[in-house]
């Protein structure tokens, strides 16, 4: 969160900040390992691809 707040304070365009906020938590290594161990590799890969898609859509919308 501090990275996004710093980016907004330094007048960085909104698109990278929104994309980072939307896709950063689901694509963390810890979240990926938890998804694989709890739900299996197919779900984890789908979740990772969906998180990237949400980040791209959030960046495009902003």
Overview of the molecule:
This protein is mainly alpha-helical and 62 residues long. It has one domain (2-61). It is 81% helix and 0% strand. Helix 2 (14-23) runs antiparallel to helix 4 (41-61). The radius of gyration is 13 Å and the shape is elongated.
Fold topology:
Elements: H1 2-9, H2 14-23, H3 29-39, H4 41-61
Helix pairs in contact: 1-2, 2-4, 3-4
In DSSP terms, counting alpha (H) and pi (I) runs of 4 or more, how many helices? Answer: 4
Secondary-structure element sequence? HHHH
Helix content: over 70%
What fraction strand? Answer: under 5%
Structural class: mainly alpha
- Outline the low-pLDDT stretches: none
Number of strands: 0
Using only CA atoms, what is the Rg?
13 Å
The end-to-end span amounts to 18 Å
**Per the principal axes of the C-alpha atoms, what is the gross shape?**
elongated
Q: How many discrete domains?
A: 1
The main β sheet shows up as: none
Q: Average pLDDT, to the nearest integer?
A: 82
Give the structure's gist in a few sentences:
This protein has 62 residues and is mainly alpha-helical.
Features:
mainly alpha; 62 residues
